[in-house]
Task: structure prediction
Amino acid sequence: MAIYTCGHTTPDSDSICSAISLAYLLNEIKREAIPARQGELNPETEFILNKFSFKAPILKTQFKGEELFITDYSDKGQAPKDIDEAIVVGIVDHHKLGDITTSTPLECWIRPVGCTNTIVKEMYDYHRVKIPKNIAGIMMCAILSDTVIFKSPTCTNIDIKTVRELSKICGIEDFGALGMEMFKVKSQVQGVSSRDLILRDYKPFDMFGSAVGIAQLEVVDLSLFDDVKEGLLKELEAFRVENHLHTACLLLTDIIKEGSEVLVSSSNIEVFEKAFEVKLENNKVWLQGCLSRKKQIIPFLEPAFK
Ligand code: MG
Ligand code: MG
Ligand code: MG
Result:
């Protein structure tokens, strides 16, 4: 039986690229594996796969009775609906430990680094498997994406060292330029509906019994949102009500100014205000220095629901 490698719902570049890089590694060590994805590719991921000539992994949302190697998450909220009926054989991830449990022993590679692909690189080294050029390329791009070209507080020296090694393997020395090119693709928001923008990089969380959704858009210039911000806020409100969320946030992250404007819709806005010790103005607030949902939003917002 083949093992499916698959990342989280609303997949980002790390989820897609780690499914591909991990499946290649497993096949090399004689464990048949097929990369899969739980949702549509975002424009950045499409750019990366095109650049290194990869097809999208197969779209798959049901894993009942199948062997599954999870990448880039360990929360049930981001898993396929039938996760309890899947056979989870492994997890490779760089987030806080989630609530997925297994009935059989599993292989676990979880580290506090900036990207799942950084850990997949460690797995290649552990198994002494040579990384092909094009696999190195997508792994490198995923790390540049997740670490916001090393600017995110989630970035570690291991991520930087790994990018340097991968850049040598794939033959792209100026990885900074490639990173910027990627973020320019990511910044294309014109002509995309507000709902699609909210869902582009969206994660649902259970915070002490309260349903919370946090979306993020990382761009090279926040003024791109000037004309669509009010529309985004309205749509965020509609999205929150429809999905029975206590709070829905959308981070508009400016990777050059290194901060985020957070749009908030909530059944009790004070929870957010208390968590960050801020006052929202028209449901918006600028958080200077905030680039990471994982390190700079969740650890503050979650305890506020206790
Ligand atoms: Mg991810
Ligand atoms: Mg990741
Ligand atoms: Mg991200």
Summary: The chain has a mean pLDDT of 97. The two ends are 43 Å apart (CA to CA). The chain has eleven helices and eleven strands. The chain has two domains: 3-184, 194-305.
